[in-house]
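Entry type: protein chain
Record version: 2
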Amino acid sequence: MTHVLRGFVRTAALGALVVAAGCGSDGGDGSADQDEIVATLTIVATDVAYDAESYEVPAGTVDITLIQEGLIPHTVAIEDQDGGTLDLLLTVNADQSEETATIDLAPGTYVLWCTIPGHRSLGQEATLTVS
């Protein structure tokens, strides 16, 4: 159900949540298809926190970028409404300060959380609303 593309790095404004409407063309090489990215979500990890307590994106294919600020490693995993973890894990550390992946998200409320032991219990989680 989900597709993860690792290694795709995109420059993004720190802490920005940019929602871009999916736009197609009238033919040619840039024609829109069902897998077109409809939103971009940027999450900045600092200390044991993300840069926001909640994020919002439209349903569909979303590019999610995790940016590392600080010295300790962080991750982003996505938990669905049933408590299951989706097939996406972004990891950043001092050697790799940014990672991007693409995932298809259905409408609903999700939890973003860091899988590093102790980080979630210290509050490194956020709500993701997909509409």
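Comment: The two ends are 18 Å apart (CA to CA).
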